[in-house]
Amino acid sequence: MPTINVQFFEGRTTEQKRDYAKALTEATVKALGCSPASVDIIFHDVKKSDWATGGELWSDKG
């Protein structure tokens, strides 16, 4: 049973998450040959102030 954890900045709509979950599930089924019912996807919405790249918070960028 594959479990996929997706982290991205908060602000995605429910519809975007729904579409992405469908696309990820289809790709996983194709690549692994598993059933769609066995694919779990967990979305983690992260604030820009809680994510840093290269030592700089994303909330501090431009």
TrEMBL record:
GO terms for molecular function: isomerase activity. The keyword RNA-binding does not apply. Its EC number is 5.3.2.6. Signal peptide: none annotated. SUPFAM superfamilies: Tautomerase/MIF. It comes from the Bacteria. Keywords: Isomerase. The keyword Coiled coil does not apply. Residues 2-60 form the 4-oxalocrotonate tautomerase-like domain. Belongs to the 4-oxalocrotonate tautomerase family. PANTHER family: 2-HYDROXYMUCONATE TAUTOMERASE (PTHR35530:SF1), TAUTOMERASE-RELATED (PTHR35530). This is 4-oxalocrotonate tautomerase. It comes from Azospirillum picis.
